[in-house]
Prior knowledge:
The chain is 77% helix and 0% strand. The chain is mainly alpha-helical. It is flat.
Amino acid sequence: MLFFVEIVMLLLGLWIAIRGRVPGFILDRERTPLTAAEARLIAVTLLLPLPLELAISVMLVILFGGERGLAASAYVGPVVVVLATILFFVLVFFLPRVSEARHLAEGRAPQSTEPVVARLARRAYLFTLIGTLGITTPIFCPLAYRRAGAALRLIRQHGAGAGYRGFVQITRAAAVAVFVVYFLTLTWWAARLITQGF
């Protein structure tokens, strides 16, 4: 299953690197456009897990040899995927984006916010549901949290879509709860493996 996630990350990273833009289900291109270089930097984080896991696993087998090296390399995949996912979301969150004030300064009219809030609320809910599947939690729960936060910001700033406020707040809380439960389970599992040895 983890290999499948790494392949999906690799294919998505290749698609972003070739096209030079991040797909709309990850980042709303209208509200936060990225340059091609910034998109390709994000693509690097998605391309890293599979080659990095292979390199670290080979190094562990060489260092520890045989059975012990193979046993130690079994834990490399999840760690690399989680670290790459965290780096991916850090880059998506902190890369410079065009704000609404900049849109207005350039003379562009703001979008009607009611449909945008509705779309963000639906996506946050969908991403939270997908995040409950376990292996998809590190990817989709932060996406759900970001979408819900963007919807709440629009509701606060423009007052449009106020009927979605409760739904979005519950969805954001659910995304946080699912992610925390996943993280605690993963931490417990890792601590148990460390205490029992490889």
